[in-house]
Amino acid sequence: MLESLSDRTWKRLLWFALIPALAYLPGALRLTYYRDDWYYAYDALVGPAGVFRLMFSGDRPARGPFFELYQALFGMQPLPYHLAMFAWRLGGGLATTWLLHLLWPRARLAGWAAGLLFALYPGFTWWVSGIEYQPMVASAALMVLSLALTVLALRLGSSWLRSICVLAAIATGWIYLALVEYAAGMEIFRLCLVFVATNGAQPGRLRQRAGLALRRWLIYSVIPLGFAIWRFAIFTSQRKATDLGAQLGGLQTDPLSTGLHWFVNFLPSFLNVSLSAWVVPLMSNFFSGTLRDVVIGFLVALTAALAAWLFLSTTISRGGEAEDLGTTDWPLQSIWLGLAGLVLGIAPIIVANREITFPNFSHYALPASLGLAFALTGSLFTLAQPKLRISLFSALVLLSALTHWGLGRNALREERTIASFWHQMSWRAPSIAAGTTLLVYYPGVDYADDTDIVWGPANFLYFRGPQAQLPVRVSISALTTDSSAINNLLLGHDPQESTYRAHTSTIDYARTVVIVQSAEDACARVLDPRWPTFSVTDDASLRLLAPVSRVENIQAAGPPAAALAVLFGPEPQHGWCFYFEQAVLASQQGDWQQVAAIQDQVNKLGLHPNDQIEWMPFLQAQAYLGDLHEVKQIASRINTEKLYKQQACQNLAGMADYGYPLSAETQALVNAVFCGAKP
Predict the structure, then answer these.
(1) φ and ψ at 425, to 5 degrees?
(2) Phi, psi (5° rounding) for residue 85?
């Protein structure tokens, strides 16, 4: 009965697709834009034709047409990009299966295992960024396809079919290198594959076999040679990170130190690709969610592992195991090929003076992960006990699926946090003046240098009209939250013009608006230097920033900003934060009657904040209007925190300085209730 589950090729393909689908799709189907996806999407949205060609003209020009094709097919809809990401990973896995079947036709089970290991490789953590990392996954899949076509050409007897395969292998080889130049070491891996394929068909002395393999490989040398001629003799890289001459300068001036430096960098990169990939991303992502998330993720990952176990077990039960054991030396060949692939996949990264680390540079591991799939598969099939072999393989699938579940869940949580923030800002700020610089503190999101997750959503909300010029002008820019940016802001640094790829922006410290959301269940607060509000969970350094926050750049004129549902989801129900943001906007304009009217709505609806500091605009309105009963009512909530009581005293006392004096009776109450004065 079990044998019938995988007794046809189409059934095995379905099994194969099911396992990565369980690992990737729970997250991919719900993700939108993640990190640098924002600037790709924004530049394409507002820029004229040719924006992608300009974006990559200085380092990887092949990516320009690549992204133009995606843009023509998908526009700004995020889901197709994530589905394409999954399709490339799945296609790369199937190509790996095909490659092993071509190398060792009797090792059928091993081919399926290696393909799944490549498709599920847990060290590639950027698959959640559906736009930016498309070239990397496409290159990896095309790389394996090119290698498989090479081996197929060696197996074919027909000269015209062989010629077609050779041409296809060369074409896909050029394409994958044009997309990802640091995969160039895998062209030497191609020679290793040719040697193994030749070794099986041409017994004899090692020197003879090596010579024959080299002659058969020579036609494929046009791939690295042609790419090298174009890259270094025709094309001039404007980016040092992709300029090999700049990177090799140290080898010319100090070869010993440079060589030692490369060796020292190679070791951790090798360990990261081969060992840490199964642990570090898992520990960093899976266990950081809620208990419910962890349980659901474990159940989904366990389902993927059980599917892998059942898939391979049914293949064994129908005779696949006997076929695998028919060739006794292929596991050792697979191990040696895998080690060669690991070294050759990592070497160009090291020569470029980079390292493979998690999570920032995990995409560098993709070419070398093919070698890891070979090495792990060969190692598993050296084990004599089939059940142990399949159990260990299923454990690797479990680890991968757990990792990808955690990655998808964390990315989705960040995206939803950002979406909620900008929904609130669409209520708080009907418009923002062009030329504004934002300093934003998202709750629980450390975006480091990825400021496009601030200015990207802001410009999608407020400035998404088409532009005719290139580079694209970003109307609202953003600062990082590091100490250097903060110091420049506090010192009133001169404006800085910044151009990156296809867009340009101006960091204007004199026009900076500071916005903070202290927790996911709290409301976004624009710091108003006249009467700033700080939560007890805010960093104390924020108090230094209130005086330099230019709240006047938040404008009430014009139609309200409308959040795009495809990116931010449907507008949330109008709960407390909707009314809070409306009240703060009215208080910015000094419309205290409107603030009081909003409080009436809040009271009727029975709404209340999770952070009591959010009562502040209502307290100010009732104090200015002289409603002492309401002042006392709000005081009973705000005074639960000493910090909030102090802020109430300061903000109410300072209202007169901006044209909103309190009556003598109200001021006496304020002094008694908030400022500690004796009645």
Answers:
(1) -70, -30
(2) -60, -45
